[in-house]
Amino acid sequence: MNAEPSPNLFARLRPLRPPRVCVAVTAPDPSELMEKAGALARDNSFLEFRLDYLPRPALALAKLKQFAEDYPHLMLIATCRRSASGGKFKGSVAAQLDLLNKAAAAGCQFVDLELQSAARSKPEHLLRLRSRAALILSFHDFRATKKLDATLAKMTAIAADFYKVVTTATTLYDNVVMMKFLEKNSHQHSLIGLCMGEQGLISRVLGVRAGSVFTFAAVSEEQKTAPGQLTAQQLRSTYRIEQVDAATKVYGVAGDPIAHSLSPAIMNAALRRETVNGVYLALHAKTLKDLLACVRDIPIHGVSITMPYKEQVLQHLDNMDPHTSKIGACNTIVRAQDGKLYGFNTDTAGILRPLQQRILLAQAKILVLGAGGAARAAAFALKERGAEVCILARTAAHAQKLARQAKARTVKRLDLKKLSFDVIINATPVGMGNPKESPLHEGEIHAKYVFDLVYDPVETKLLKLAKAAGAETISGLEMFVHQAARQFEIWTGKPAPWDEMLRVVNRSVLEPPIAKGPLNQKNPA
Ligand code: NAP
Question: How far apart, in whole angstroms, are the C-alpha atoms of residue 34 and residue 74?
Answer without folding.
Answer: 13
